[in-house]
TrEMBL record, chain A:
It is found in: Cell membrane. InterPro entries: ABC_transp_permease, LivM-like. The lineage of its organism: Bacteria, Bacillati, Cyanobacteriota, Cyanophyceae, Synechococcales. Keywords: Cell membrane, Membrane, Transmembrane, Transmembrane helix. This is Branched-chain amino acid ABC transporter permease. GO terms for molecular function: branched-chain amino acid transmembrane transporter activity. The chain crosses the membrane at residues 6-24, 36-54, 60-82, 94-117, 137-154, 185-206, 218-247, 259-278. One of its GO terms (cellular component) is plasma membrane.
From TrEMBL, chain B:
Pfam families: BPD_transp_2. InterPro entries: ABC_transp_permease (IPR001851), BCAA_transport_permease (IPR052157). It comes from Synechococcus lacustris str. Tous. The keyword Cell inner membrane applies. Coiled coil: none annotated. This is Flagellar biosynthesis protein FlgM. It comes from the Bacteria.
Amino acid sequence: MIDISLFVLMLLGALLALAVYLPLRAGQLSLATPGFYTIGGTVAALLSTQLPGLGGSDAVYPLTSLLLEMIVAIAVAGLLAFLIGKPVLKLRGIYLAIATIALVEILRVVLLSSPWFGAAVGIFAIPQPFEGPEGYLIAYGLLLAIVAWACARLERQPLGMAMAAIRDDELAARCMGVSTDQVKLIAFVLSAIVAAAAGVLAAHYFNSWNARQANFDASITTLAFVVLGGSRTWLGPVIGGLVLTALPELLRPIGDLRLIVFGLVILLGPIFIPQGLIKSKQS
Amino acid sequence: MDGLLQLLINGISIGATYALFALGYTLVFSVLGVINFAHGAVFTCGAYFTYLLLGGAVGSNGMLAGMHFPLALPLLVALPLAGIGAAAMGLLVEAVAFKPLRRRGAEPLLYLITSLGAGVILVNLIQLLMGAEAYALPGNLLGRWPAVLALGHGVQIRTVQLLLLIVAGIAMLILSLWLNRSSYGKALQAVAEDGTTARLLGINSGAIIQLAFAIASFLAGISGGLVALSVNIGGPYFGIGYGLKGLGVLVLGGLGSAPGAVLGGLIIGIAEALVPAKLSAYKDAVAFAFLFLMLILRPQGLLGKPPMEKV
């Protein structure tokens, strides 16, 4: 049975895929997305459970408070990405990927070990702004629409073109006057913001939150969304995120074999469709 | 002081397994310039092979429930055989996840995904066949040997730790001799230096890459068996943590540097052992903190060559 919750997860997958796509468009392989997603969720979980003032008088959690959480989470994640991005983005290729894996691992261990963030058990009873999954479907749909629209617009603007230029040839881009460090940093911060916003909604949707979401598997799964969907335009990650999130659930009837099939898909995908499902028009 | 010595012994013995594991990573990285993310899964295979070859029975949750290998081999036979089994797995991974991309000259990003796909398949196959439960190796492997050797002044070493150190030491010694003295070892270094030139000089680089995978996976398999012996097998996913920690070791020592991998393994093993018990929850972050600092301060690692930028 396919229910609404699967569609909610698919939209979440598409959002995370866009977060991976943004730095990748500038040629930067960052695997830090689950980390910023976890930061977003942790901010939302802490604010909504620790500050009674946000709850309001109604049974449902006010949407204005949700919006406020989102602004705080975006600010925290964006600032962190800005501070970390400066030194980390000096690294190239696989070195950057490994550094971001390390970031996610450190973040998880620290969040899971420290009592301020709910430690190993996590934070429970996160209040609900919506009465059912339909509300989350609309909220995620809205968020995805905004982010996808912004990405589509970005691709046609000088910043988006500068990003693509860095991906194709960083040295040449720098010679053409693109301030590569700045563009890469902007892409990294934008990615963190998208992931954190997705995390805020997720913390409410899942009702409880702990840092186990920030793990290496999640890093690679979200990267697989982009690689299989196509990393040239915004549509690729969206399709990849939707399809690959649905796949393990749709395969549930085959039971234990489903993760093996999922493994086969991410093993064979890059071999048979190296450019992903959605190819770009120009190249 | 004695307490410190004890911590050092513990740290060095765990560091030796990290080193063995990371040597495999670095061998493959040096010939291909990419990281094999299925390495952790191959390590896990080595641990399970060791368990089965020692005569261990499959638990009740897998498809092979209740079955066991007809012979219970002695440890010193089972361990190298498990390594060979792991090498076969490594060759399989190379054939399905690396060779098709290499032929096409694909971008390194794709190797990351395909090798991880291969790892996911291996881990879930193990889960399907042997169940998700933890396995402990049979208890009487050491025969008449005592489980713990006292070194005086209250310092002691577990016999398993000693064995681990000896096996790891021998493996590293043979590897370094082979790399530097034999013609295959030199060919491997040549491919690592410059694949195209090596091919022009008549070196079959495809065969050398397979050789690197086989050796790397053999080392991973042995270290899997040794870790299973010293702690136990925590389930099909237990190699993933080692796989990630191995990345820390690799970067600390320098990507592509074999002595660096050994040094990095020992440093991280000792650093972890020195984390005070009160902060033990943070122990798993030590390797990554090292890794992160190293990348920021000195991306080429302790013993690696700095990456060159094309102009």
